[in-house]
Amino acid sequence: MGGNASSKDEMSQIFKTFDTDGSGMIDRVEIMAYMKTNYPKFPLQAVDLLIMLTDTNGNGQIERVEFPDFYKIVQACVATDMVLKNIIYTALSVAENCEFITKAKIIKGLKCFGVIVKPGELYKNKYSKDEFMNEVEKMFE
């Protein structure tokens, strides 16, 4: 289901396609199944990042109230070339709702992939897309 979901009814329908068990919450397994079916090139290791960015109450699941932000990030990510570092940047920047990403958000986001940022690796408080890509490229080498 592509495009922008603006109406509550449409968003509710999209939520139901994720929520296959009808629990009213979307867990990691449901998200991974949806992404694998609808976006087979999407790197599934990015699912934890999507959850981390939008799970505001920390229960590890996406609830209806969190879903619009979650889906906005999903749509932005699937519009990329599906390269992991581009998805990471897109998810973080959409979550921050700006062109620059804070150092704290980068560190938290990269932790989802087992990348631990060592002291001194990120020296600035905010990064542009090009700066971010250069720094992340080094960390994934």
From TrEMBL:
Domain EF-hand stretches: 6-41
One Pfam family cited in the UniProt record for this chain: EF-hand_7
Single annotated GO MF: calcium ion binding
SMART domains xrefs: EFh
Highest taxon in the source lineage: Eukaryota
InterPro entries: EF-hand-dom_pair, EF_Hand_1_Ca_BS, EF_hand_dom
Keywords per UniProt: Calcium
Key word Calcium present: yes
Coiled-coil blocks: none
Protein name: EF-hand domain
